[in-house]
Design goal:
Layout (H helix, E strand, L loop, with lengths): L1 H13 L30 E4 L4 E3 H6 L3 E5 L6 H10 L3 H6 L3 E6 L3 H4 L11 E4 L4 H5 L3 E3 L2 H11 L13 E3 L2 E5 L5 E6 L9 H13 L1
Parallel strand pairs: 3-4, 4-5
Antiparallel strand pairs: 1-2, 1-5, 3-8, 6-7, 8-9
C-alpha cells in the first residue's frame, strides 16, 4: 500500500497538471523559479526600441543567442553589465551568436540608452512582463524598497494591471541554441553580482561544440 501511495505521488509530481507555474511573481528574488538548462524558451512576443513586435522564438531560430535579462536603464549595475559585453562582443559574433538584452523598459526608454554605433546588442522591451514572468524571473520589490525607488525615480517602474507593487526581474543570462533550448543559465538574486562575459563566452563556445 505504501509503495502504491509513493508511486501515485510521483505520478502527480510529474504530471503537467502539477507543473511549476513560473508566471507567478515571487515574493522575493531568492524565491524565483527560473528556466533551467535543457528547457525550452517560451513562445512570447517582445518589442524593439522602435516599437515593433518580435517573436522571441523566431528571433532565436535565426542564430544561437545570448540573452540577458536586466532591471532597466535606470540601474547602474545593469548598465555596467551591458557595457562589459561590448569588448567581447566580436568573440560572440565570431561564433555566430547574437546578443539580446531584455528589460521591462518601454521602447521609448530603450531609445534613451545610448551605445557606440558599433555595438550590436539588441535591446528588447518587455513592458507587460510577459517574458520576465515566463522565464520565472519576476519578483515583487519589498514595499519599503519600492518607496525609496519611487522617491528616487518616480513612477517609472513596472507593475502588473490592478496593482501598484513594483515587479522586477532577477538579472539573468542564458545561452540558447537555434531550437530555443537553454544550454547554459546564470541567475543570481543578488543584483549586484553579474556573470562574467568571458564565462558566458566559454559557455557559448561549448554549446556550439556540443
Amino acid at each position: 500500500m505504501l509503495i502504491r501511495r509513493l508511486a501515485l505521488i510521483l505520478v502527480l509530481i510529474a504530471s503537467p497538471l502539477y507543473a511549476l507555474d513560473r508566471s507567478q511573481v515571487a515574493d522575493s528574488p531568492e524565491n524565483v523559479t527560473p528556466l533551467l538548462n535543457g528547457q525550452q524558451i517560451p513562445d512570447i512576443t517582445l518589442k524593439t526600441a522602435q516599437g515593433e513586435a518580435v517573436n522571441l522564438r523566431e528571433l532565436v531560430a535565426s542564430k544561437p543567442t545570448v540573452i540577458l535579462f536586466y532591471r532597466g536603464g535606470w540601474c547602474p549595475y545593469c548598465n555596467a553589465q551591458l557595457a562589459g559585453f561590448q569588448p567581447v562582443e566580436k568573440q560572440f559574433t565570431a561564433l555566430g551568436y547574437q546578443i539580446l538584452a531584455v528589460s521591462p523598459d518601454s521602447p521609448e526608454r530603450l531609445n534613451e540608452q545610448k551605445f557606440d554605433t558599433d555595438y550590436q546588442v539588441k535591446l528588447l522591451s518587455d513592458p507587460t512582463l510577459e517574458a520576465i514572468r515566463a522565464f520565472g524571473l519576476a519578483f515583487y520589490l519589498p514595499d519599503d524598497v519600492a518607496a525609496k525607488y519611487r522617491e528616487w525615480k518616480g513612477n517609472t517602474f513596472p507593475t502588473l494591471p490592478g496593482s501598484d507593487r513594483i515587479v522586477l526581474p532577477v538579472p539573468a543570462a542564458y545561452v540558447l541554441d537555434k531550437d530555443g533550448m537553454i544550454q547554459f543559465q546564470y541567475v543570481n538574486p543578488n543584483y549586484k553580482v553579474r556573470v562574467d562575459p568571458q564565462l558566458m563566452y566559454y559557455a557559448a563556445k561549448l554549446a556550439i561544440k556540443s
